[in-house]
Amino acid sequence: MLDRECIQSRGFRNVLENGKTVGFQLKIRSLYYRGLWLSQLRPATVIVDGEEFSGDKITWVIKSKKYKQSKLKAVSDIHWCIDETATLILDKNNGLETGYHDIEFKYSFSSSYMPPNMDGILSGGPQSRKLLLVK
Fold first, then answer.
1. Which of 40, 61, 76, 111 is deepest in the core (most CB within 10 A)?
2. Which H/E stretch holds residue 59?
């Protein structure tokens, strides 16, 4: 079951690769009632405890496939539905410490029925939430 908020309370944890903590992840859901094609997403920003993550420090995982943020605009055949989560993996050596963290997520998107110069108006953010990271 999804949380009502964009930033989900489940799935916030550090990410391990080959036994080394390389970052952390959080789960989000789209607040746009129609869902979004990945090519409609505009670069997102995540701020955790004042530290900003953007560009290719963010990897999106949708339908079990990973996409660097800069590659999303070329993915026009994958739809992110309103009733499914996306996982954001954020690159950060050693991940985050156990405890509560302030998280802010900002993103925007284009819409097929709006002129491109109005992209900035369509926004799912900023969204913020305090989450507990447990090891």
1. 40
2. strand 58-62
